[in-house]
Automatic annotation (TrEMBL):
Protein name per the record: Aromatic amino acid aminotransferase
PANTHER family reported for this sequence: HISTIDINOL-PHOSPHATE AMINOTRANSFERASE, HISTIDINOL-PHOSPHATE AMINOTRANSFERASE 2
Cofactor dependency: pyridoxal 5'-phosphate
EC number, UniProt record: 2.6.1.57
Keywords, comma-separated and alphabetical: Aminotransferase, Pyridoxal phosphate, Transferase
Family membership noted in the UniProt record: Belongs to the class-II pyridoxal-phosphate-dependent aminotransferase family.
UniProt modified residues of type N6-(pyridoxal phosphate)lysine: 218
Superkingdom assignment: Bacteria
Subunit structure: Homodimer.
Source organism of this protein record: Nonomuraea spiralis
Gene responsible for this protein: hisC
Signal peptide: none
Function: Aminotransferase that catalyzes the conversion of aromatic amino acids and 2-oxoglutarate into corresponding aromatic oxo acids and L-glutamate.
Organism placement in taxonomy: Bacteria, Bacillati, Actinomycetota, Actinomycetes, Streptosporangiales
Length: 352
């Protein structure tokens, strides 16, 4: 028998959201926080054109895309590091700090990939329970010790949708020692409308130990192509560039991301529609009697405890796929109005 690392025996598998179909053939996938819209024709055309060069390796430095991001956010080229989805950038971060004995602090529950990546990198996860549905930043600061090399702060948090405001985040950053890297995971930043939730890009400039993770998977609708990136000061970005698997960001992904930045106005208009639907869905749920934490992301969170799997099954009967976390709750993405209506009907039925 081939032998593998012991950690693989106990590592929780990542469970991706799956589509479900109702008996009468309806299917609404609200389980992966994707964009509900078809790709833009201009992006599809750029990808089709790019397909003519797929016999060649992609640009390993993804120069055009890096330049486009630098221009878009007015950040130096050297502050950007790309990856095959922001989860891969997160993996590179874990591997860049990872050594036996090293600890990484993050809130729990948060993005399911963090414990997996910690295990893979051979570092110790220090999970700090949420206070209610929010990050407990005091407890997170207290969890930092000499072994800590990195802290993940997911803002807004997946799966609760809750976000951290400037008046809480800045004092927290000030408490973190300079040799501990703080990663602000802002996968859902484009959906934030609360002006008191700070943009991480305004925070990293004068903090060498702070960096920001962003993705083209959600607001930009490129989940299927896998492009994400980090913005941080030069030594942080350089570490991530060093740890990338050669050619990880493929040619079509680079082209689609550049085309998406060109078509950003159209994409952000779609984001605006999702934000409006988010308010409608949350208000309707509250009207039905649910408790729904305020969300700045493209999903809502229902804390269902022991009823979570029953709720997911009841939604599935209506063709609505949600993301259940057994014993805790369900995360439901905001889709198009028809999908949202199907979900609201299932939620109403479940409450009885
Ligand atoms: N961070 C958070 C908080 C997420 O929710 C996700 C996707 N579920 C990611 C990172 C990774 O996204 P991607 O790899 O598609 O960029």
């Amino acid at each position: 028998m081939p032998r593998f690392r012991h950690i693989l025996d106990t590592m929780p598998p990542y469970k991706p959201g799956k589509a479900v179909v109702s008996a009468d053939g309806r299917s609404y996938k609200l389980s992966s926080n994707e964009s509900p819209y078809d790709p833009l024709p201009s992006v599809v055309e750029a990808v089709a054109e790019g397909a003519r060069q797929i016999n060649r390796y992609p640009d390993p430095g993804a120069v055009k895309l890096t330049e486009a991001i630098a221009e878009r956010y007015d950040v130096p080229f050297e502050h950007i590091a790309l990856g095959a989805g922001s989860v891969t950038v997160a993996q590179q971060l874990f591997e860049s700090v990872g050594e036996p004995g090293v600890e990484v602090v993050y809130a729990w529950r948060s993005f399911e990939a963090y414990p997996l990546l910690a295990d893979l990198a051979g570092v110790t996860s220090v999970r700090v329970p949420l206070a209610g549905e929010d990050h407990d930043l005091d407890a997170m600061a207290e969890a930092i010790n000499d072994r800590t090399r990195m802290v993940f702060v997911c803002n807004p948090n997946n799966p609760t949708g809750t976000s951290i405001r400037r008046d809480a985040l800045v004092p927290f950053l000030d408490r973190v020692p300079e040799n501990v890297l703080v990663v602000l995971d802002e996968a859902y930043r484009e959906y934030v409308r609360d002006e008191d939730v700070p943009d991480g890009l305004t925070l990293y400039r004068d903090r060498p130990n702070v960096c920001v993770l962003r993705t083209f998977s959600k607001a930009y609708g490129l989940a299927g192509l896998r492009v994400g990136y980090l913005i941080g000061q030069e030594p942080v970005a350089a570490a991530i560039r060093k740890t990338i698997i050669p050619f990880a960001v493929n040619h079509l992904a680079q082209i689609a991301a550049v085309a998406s930045l060109k078509a950003e106005d159209e994409l952000l208009e779609r984001v605006e529609r999702v934000v409006k639907e988010r308010s409608r869905v949350r208000e309707a749920l509250i009207e039905q009697g649910w408790t729904v934490p305020p969300t700045e992301a493209n999903f809502v969170w229902l804390r269902l405890g022991e009823r979570t799997l029953d709720f997911a099954a009841a939604c599935a009967v209506e063709g609505v796929a949600v993301r259940p976390f057994a014993g805790e709750g369900a995360r439901v993405s905001i889709g198009d109005p028809e999908a949202n209506d199907a979900f609201l009907a299932a939620a109403k039925e479940f409450r009885g």
